Amino acid sequence: MIEVHNVQKSFNGNPVLKGITCRFETGKCNLLLGGSGTGKSVLLQCIVGLMKPDLGSITFDGLVFTNNKVDIKQDIRRKIGMLFQGGALFDSMTVYENTEFPLKMLTPDMSREERRDRVEFCLKRVGLENAGTKMPSEISGGMKKRVGIARAIAPNCTYLFCDEPNSGLDPATSIKIDELIHEITHEYGITTVVITHDMNSVVEIGDHIIYLHKGLKLWDGTKEEILNTTVPELKEFIFSSSLVRAAKKVDEETEGGLAAIVEVAPEKDA
Amino acid sequence: MVKTFGEFLLFMQGMLFRKERFTVLWQRTLDEAILIGIDSVFIVAIVSAFIGAVTCVQIAYNLVNPLIPKSTIGFMVREMTILELAPTITSIVLAGKVGSSIAGGLGTMRITEQVDALEVMGINSASYLVLPKIVAAMMMFPLLVILAMVLSITGGYLAGTLSGAMSAQEYIEGIRSDFVPYNIAFALIKSVVFAFLVSAISSYKGYFTKGGALEVGAASTAAVTNSIIAILLADYVLAALLL
């Protein structure tokens, strides 16, 4: 479990995080939900150590991360896997080498064969078993995200962070990436934190949702609870999302026919 | 200016602190040595051969006094090449080629979050990315300077003899007369210092790039400009201290 306590961060006197306290539960897909500029990415960067909070503490399974010794921070970081918004794959390496990289760096005792098996397993897990020899410039945005996930899970990470995994992807690919993250979280019992402003993701994978607004945590709960929220800002956010607006529009135009459309929609696996 | 210098020193310190495993860094250093050294051989060869040739022709053009022996041309080509042209001009050429490549590469890695990816994995990105570049540059610059010396003197020989400015015997006599071996050591010391300046300044500029593609270009330009200024300053300081 990751616990964030009273984290504050400001830039040039402009507060971005105004004392955020929340927890990300183990074995669950924790969603950091909020509009643009609400501090989601800054909070994530503080959690993974790319940015230092002005105030507050962050603990990983009881181990304090902020202001701790470099060695301890390093140990925690080596349990972290992260999927960046653009994939952040190393341009000079193939898909296989990208996935192998953290193993080479973090597990020097691993033999070449063990590494190969692990890389092949991870690539297969994300459905890219035949793309190992490709360079990042030769693959699509969705594939880059998959490689990013394979690279993140390769060293058996305990915590997985995903920064807007759906950005720049078409709806079908977005759903696949969401499902992959959700499956991996539950399969390996890892603590996953996903930054998103996509209501599709909330509905698909949100086990635990934290809503940020103007640097404050306004709400947290499950995806079943979110639609019944009484927080006005969150309500506005939900009902301004394209998913809900489209559903509402279709329902109005078909005079309550949305249920009929949903009924005839193809199943996920179809 | 003072703040930037302080940041630069902290960057250098961070690179040496909690380094990655030796085997990893050594492999990276060899890879960088190929990029910095082997890939620069062609441009260094072309530049140094022509500089030697032009130096020889221009000295011959100016030495019209019949009392000055023709072998002086070879002597002057050697002295100019070893003391100044080979180490300094080669380093300036490399500041353009290697410096911009280092700053552009690191800048691109920074803006595409590749540096952040390394940091999140618990890898000291400065040590992993920058230290091998600096070590490789300090290994390869002296070798390139030696190559430049040889080719520059050879260029002078070819230009001098083919143009009929002097005979081969006179040129060789000139380059062998009053030879001071320390000058070679001085040139190599300069090349190591210049290598450090070019690689460290370019890495610093690239590593701390913020923004997008435009800023990567600006970082490359700044890396080359600052490296050349640093080379010229260091050239003067070293000449004043060591000669």
What labels would you give this structure?
heterodimer, A: 270 residues, alpha/beta, Rossmann fold, 2 domains, 6-stranded mixed β-sheet, 4-stranded antiparallel β-sheet, 11 helices, 41% helix, globular, B: 243 residues, mainly alpha, 0% strand
DSSP strand tally of chain A:
10
Cα end-to-end separation of chain A: 36 Å
Rg over CA atoms of chain B: 21 Å
Domain tally of chain A: 2
Rg for CA atoms of chain A: 20 Å
Order of helices and strands of chain B: HHHHHHHHH
Low-confidence residue ranges of chain A: none
Looking at how many chains there are and whether they match, the oligomeric state comes to heterodimer
In which order are the strands of the major sheet of chain A placed? 6-7-8-3-9-10
- Which overall shape of chain B is indicated by the principal axes computed on the Cα atoms? elongated
Distance between the termini of chain B: 30 Å
Helix- and strand-based class of chain A?
alpha/beta
Kindly state the percentage of residues in helix of chain B: over 70%
Assign the CATH superfamily of the largest domain in chain A: P-loop containing nucleotide triphosphate hydrolases
Q: Assign a percent range to the helix content of chain A.
A: 40-55%
Shape of chain A: globular
Name the pair of protein chains with the most residues at their interface, and give those residue counts. Answer: A-B, 23 and 16 residues
Main sheet properties of chain B: none
Q: Please report the number of helical segments of chain A.
A: 11
| Average pLDDT level of chain A | 86
CATH class of the largest domain in chain A: Alpha Beta
